[in-house]
Design goal:
The chain is an alpha/beta fold. It folds into two domains: about 220 residues, Rossmann fold (3-Layer(aba) Sandwich), CATH 3.40.50.300; about 60 residues, 2-Layer Sandwich (Alpha-Beta Plaits), CATH 3.30.70. About 35% of the residues lie in helices and about 30% in strands. It has ten helices and 14 strands. It has a six-stranded mixed β-sheet, with helices on both faces. It has a four-stranded antiparallel β-sheet with strand order 2-1-4-5, with helices on one face. It has a four-stranded antiparallel β-sheet with strand order 12-13-11-14, with no helix packed on it. The protein starts with a strand and ends with a helix.
């Protein structure tokens, strides 16, 4: 339902999205996960026909986005990271303003506004001025706006950012209900826990490049192979392990934790046999998805600091 082929966007020679190849299936809630500045928003803007790619192509359904922007807008709904509404107008009148862009009659607008306010749980706040809304209510109103045209595809840019836990819980409930209705949803976030709650598959993006795609378990295997953690017990203080692939050795009593660029268990075993030390434990431990994502964020921050200095 959503597909990109070598999708690239440059701003003044700086690559924001770099040769992105991504596919989201019809009816899927897909998590687009990455630190701030990773290229998530730029990708969504290209998918929604709001900006054009420098090169590459993207598709929504059967439509190539750059060649069919109006058809794409007809079947997509977009929730921006920072929604904009008229604070002096109530929720109903704000939605009526946006519904007019879809050519709806007055009766159609009234019926559809009533429907989407019910979907997002704001029917009792329909006559309340938006300036009095909480952040969570504004996000739900923005989702109602994105649903006005009953889209097949929803592009959600950081929809739960900055809202309280109860608001995030309510938003996730709505997303799961929309999934049951068969909507295809691209859910962009820098918060891993939010993505894991609602998405069966996720893609991790950093510095404009897609690093991994799959279920959380598949990504853990894909990206964990770049970073090996080997548990050894005992690991005597006097034993010095020297190998080009060893990154770090930590000791916790008799237990040792070795971080390495490859699986060096065979080397460790040979050293222990040679020294006639009895091994009680020698196993490979994969880093958790949380640890993998934190590593991506830290590397991104290091690059930002380096470029800013």
């Amino acid at each position: 339902m959503i597909r990109t082929v070598d999708l690239t966007k440059e701003y003044d020679g700086v690559i924001a999205v770099d040769s992105l190849n991504l596919e989201v299936k019809r009816g899927e809630v897909f998590g687009f996960l990455g630190p701030n500045g990773a290229g998530k928003s730029t990708t969504i803007l290209m998918l929604g026909a709001m900006i054009e790619p420098t090169r590459g192509t993207c598709y929504i359904g059967d439509f190539e986005v750059t060649r069919n922007p109006l058809e794409v807008k007809r079947i997509t709904g977009y929730l921006p990271e920072r929604p904009g509404f008229y604070d002096h107008l109530d929720a109903e009148r704000n939605l009526d303003y946006f519904a007019r862009f879809y050519g709806m009659s007055e009766d159609e607008r009234r019926r559809r506004i009533e429907e989407v306010l019910e979907v997002v749980g704001l029917e009792e706040a329909r006559r309340k001025k938006v300036g009095e809304f909480s952040r969570g209510m504004i996000q739900r109103l923005a989702l109602a706006q994105a649903l006005l045209n009953d889209p097949e595809v929803l592009l959600l840019d950081e929809p739960t950012s900055g809202i309280d836990p109860q608001g995030a819980l309510e938003f996730r409930r709505i997303i799961k209900e929309l999934e049951r209705e068969g909507k295809t949803i691209l859910f962009s976030s820098h918060i891993l826990s939010e993505v894991r709650e609602v998405c069966r598959r996720i893609g991790i993006i950093s510095k404009g490049r897609l690093l991994a795609v799959g279920t959380p378990e598949e990504i853990q295997r894909q990206m964990g192979e770049e970073h090996y953690r080997i548990i050894v017990e005992p690991l005597p203080e006097e034993l010095k392990l020297e190998h080009d692939d060893i990154l770090k050795i930590e000791r916790d009593g008799q237990r040792g934790i070795i971080e390495a660029k490859s699986d060096i268990r065979e080397f460790i075993s040979e050293v222990f046999i040679e020294r006639r030390i009895k091994l009680r434990e020698l196993r490979l431990e994969m880093p958790s998805l949380e640890e993998i994502f934190m590593k991506v964020i830290q590397e991104s921050e290091v690059d930002e600091n380096a470029s800013g200095s």
